[in-house]
Amino acid sequence: MTIAAxxxxxxxxxxxxDRAGEKLGKLEEVYLRGREPLVITLSSGLAGRKHHAxxxxxATVSRDSLHLDATADSLVALDGSGVGDDAxxxxxxxxxxxxxxxxxxVEGSRARQQRLEAEAEARAAARELDDEALLRAEEEAAAQxxxxxxxxxxxxxxxxxxxxxxxxxxxxxxxxxIS
Length: 179
Fold this sequence. Notes:
The chain has three helices and eight strands, in the order αβββββββαβα.
């Protein structure tokens, strides 16, 4: 079975076996470059205290395990802090895809998932802000229209008052001349 990046979340905790089918440990983390899974870390020993890294070159997955094209001797011991320069250099001897890669070039599946979730949250927040900005722009346009209408009504009222004052003045003059 081909290893696909979309399946990573289902691998954590899976048994990792060597090429002979012997148990090496449990999968802790998968490291990718872009969408390509390249390296794993696994834990073994009592309470999972031993940590190792391995290349995924030639690896396959089954329903209940990950099968490495490696042996226990080809695993790289880790100090528990993840895959660093030394581990990648040691693994590059077995996998030329890892040559010239540094820790900044690979991303753990958990970190990737967190990054993707943060990006999705940021996109959702941006959409909400865009929607709110659109709503505020519509409210502003409506308020401006109401203000124009109110200004027009005020202008009409002013003209009507002036006409009424003018008619009143004419009526007073006419009334003054009749007496």
